[in-house]
Amino acid sequence: MKNNRRNFLKLSGLTGLGVAGAGALKGFAQEPANNLIKHFDRKPPMQRFNMCDYAAPRLDKVRVGIIGLGDRGPGHLEGLVKIEGVEIKALCDVRPEAANSAKKSIDGYGHKPVIYSENSESWKKLCERDDIDVVYICTPWDMHTPMALYAMEHGKHAFVEVPIALTIEDCWKLVETSERTKKYCRMMENACYGSLTTLNMVRMGYFGEIVHGEAGYLHNLVERYFFNKNQYWDMWRLKNNARAVGDLYPTHGLGPVAQIMDINRGNSMDFMVSMSTNDFTLAAKAKELAAKDDFFKPFADLSYRGNMTTTIIRTKKGQTIKLGHDTSSPNIHSDWFKIIGTKGTVFDDPKRISNGGEKWLSEEEAKAIEKKYEPGIIKKMGELAQKAGGHGGVDFLQNWFMVDRLRNGLPLDQDVYDAAAWSVIVPLSEWSVTNHSSPVKIPDFTYGSWITNKPFDISLKEGGNTKVKV
User: Fold this and answer.
1) What is the 3-state secondary structure (H, E, C) of 262-299?
2) Cβ of 280: how many Cβ atoms within 10 Å?
3) Are 311 and 202 in contact (CB under 8 A)?
4) Are the CB atoms for 204 and 251 separated by under 8 Å?
């Protein structure tokens, strides 16, 4: 009992409190802050090779294989066939009908991909081919890391859907393998391409020093996705919501804010806490459906993650980031983010800008300012990307930019350290939620290189010469 009381006092910072105010302050100050933060210390003794700003040998042709053709895979395929220099060499899905449908969708573009659908291990044959440069991985989340590792070990760049990993250990494996093989391991975070003008405004000093960022993924997926047995393979998304608590999908919100705050490139995330509500909808829906359809009976007695998870992150430069994740409440769909600086504020979705006052600028004023600060990539490709489609054009813009960088032998905008740092919020938020929202240290996957790493280029001073067929 005494030990339990001592541990509680220690965690709450009450150890050493005395009657006098000075004694109380002294007792509080003596408690080392790091004692209150959970550390998951596991990393090699030194960095093998810094993949930030690494330029892989240029590729005249970008030969692509795609694994997973259910939801995200066909969208990437549709965009890639419109980009100069891309050759689609292979398509893989455990469902032959999905792979063949994807192949048929690109008839007329001149590509003749080989189909791999024999069994659940067929994706390995795709990775083992010697005529593929890049493997796109668009499968359920738990398959992302093993497939990316296998692809890199077989000499391929791995472009992986979000999140790239579900465990801290897997994040480190991806970092180590990318550094050792010198193959790109890039997470396909498309949300970053919708905030490039805001990023340029920040870099040009419009908002002053950045103080705080807020972002989230609010998307009601209960009816349309989670419990739609014809929407996706093996109900994997619903199973994930029963597998874990915390923020399962942090990267859409975190990615743009992390780039704005120069995370891994002059700044670093330090520690975080997460808190979740109870589940108010998923278990009830599962029971409701199970009463009418035996298919849902295995899901009726499961425990599900809470509706809303809120995560607070503190950076090494003293800024804060607030993330929200809710896919099971009747929210209006929003991938919003908000940036607060010392000279102004910007809110996205819908876009609003303030220049330091207490009111938003008019829509006309905001549009004029955005036009003034458009970076080179948006000036060149913004309208074309919107015509090409895919989440308002951000999917196409992302694929075009990556292909253009590969064909010109230029560094990518996102690297394995970004993929690991943004995805590690998934297991860390789970740990924090299940431990009474205790703070937890965020691993530094750059081994301290964030101090000297430079921000990536969005001006298109180099490259930008890859044509499109829209």
Assistant:
1) CECCCECEEEEEEEECCCCCHHHHHHHHHCCCHHHHHH
2) 13
3) no
4) no
Cis amide bond preceding 32, omega within 30: no
- Which amino acid is it at 55? A
Phi and psi angles of residue 321, each rounded to the nearest 5 degrees, phi first: -130, 130
pLDDT at 333: 87
Do the beta carbons of residue 412 and residue 186 sit within 8 Å? yes
Distance, CA of 43 to CA of 417 (rounded, Å): 13
How do residues 306-363 score in pLDDT, each as one tens digit?
999 999 999 999 999 999 999 999 988 887 899 999 999 999 878 899 999 889 999 9
The Cα–Cα gap between 242 and 235 comes to 11
List the Cα angle 207/454/84 in 5-degree steps. Answer: 95
The count of C-alpha atoms lying within 13 angstroms of the C-alpha of 342, restricted to the half-sphere facing its C-beta, is 5
Residues in the chain: 470
- The residues near 103 (Cβ < 8 Å, ≥ 6 apart) are 91, 113, 115
Q: pLDDT (tens digit, 9 = 90+) per residue, 162-197? A: 999 999 999 999 999 999 999 999 999 999 999 999
User: Using CA atoms, how far apart are residues 66 and 310, in angstroms rounded to an integer?
Assistant: 34
Distance (Å, whole) CA 135 – CA 124: 11
Return d(Cα 297, Cα 284) in angstroms, integer. Answer: 12
CA distance 455 to 261: 10
What is the rounded CA–CA span in Å between residue 213 and residue 322?
Answer: 6
- pLDDT value at 1 more than 70: no
* Measured distance CA(173)–CA(164) in Å, rounded: 11
